[in-house]
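Morning. Coffee machine broken again, so started the prediction first thing and wrote up yesterday's gels while waiting. Chain of 249 residues, entered below exactly as on the submission form.
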Amino acid sequence: MQRIAGLLATLVLAAGTQAHAGEVQVAVAANFTAPMQQIAAAFEQDTGNKAVLAFGATGKFYAQIHNGAPFEILLAADDETPARLERDKQTVAGSRFTYATGRLVLWSAKEHYVDGQGKVLQSGTFKHLSIANPKAAPYGAAAVETLTKLNLMATLQPKIVQGENIAQAHQFVSTGNAELGFVALSQVARDGKFSAGSGWIVPDSMHSPIRQDAVILTKGAANPAAKALMAYLKSDKAKGIIRAFGYEL
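Came back before lunch.
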């Protein structure tokens, strides 16, 4: 009888959790695709709430939010876009925080192609260098800063191919359409090791910090699932996933 009573209590608790479960619409910077997919799966398993994810360039999300897109949370690739949305009265006051600090990497799908100091950039033997659109994607802006600091921007400009976002910039390199490119470390490494190819992790001193902020948007102000997800992003489980993909906290 005790077993049956315990089982019934578990079923009632589970049913109650599902009854109170909700959905939250989340705009996610393309560089954070893989970790956010893992976090969303864990979030749903642990809380019963579902995060419906859309991935893209932060700059485009800014425009879409202003045009009435139904997003309730933004996980940006920078800290300036959420701050702008705050100034535009498009966010819930006090909800913004830095969920990760990104790392830029010069990467090639070819083994041993990119050396540990990025000197391959000076060789000039490659035909195409992929970067994300610097006007819409903070990782693209960081790539331009890095090339400028290396005094290579003018020289390499004819070789640059731009992806709409960091996901497309990575795709150009992974498919071989560009020999190398500046991408997010999270796209090509796990637990500190490149999963394929070769790369140079760009020193932080070469570009402005890629602080990535999350914020609840006004459309999510009354949604408990939005607040639950923001809290979950600060949990040890979420932080562990974020670190595994090469981000700093």
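The chain has eleven helices and twelve strands. Going to sketch it on the whiteboard this afternoon.
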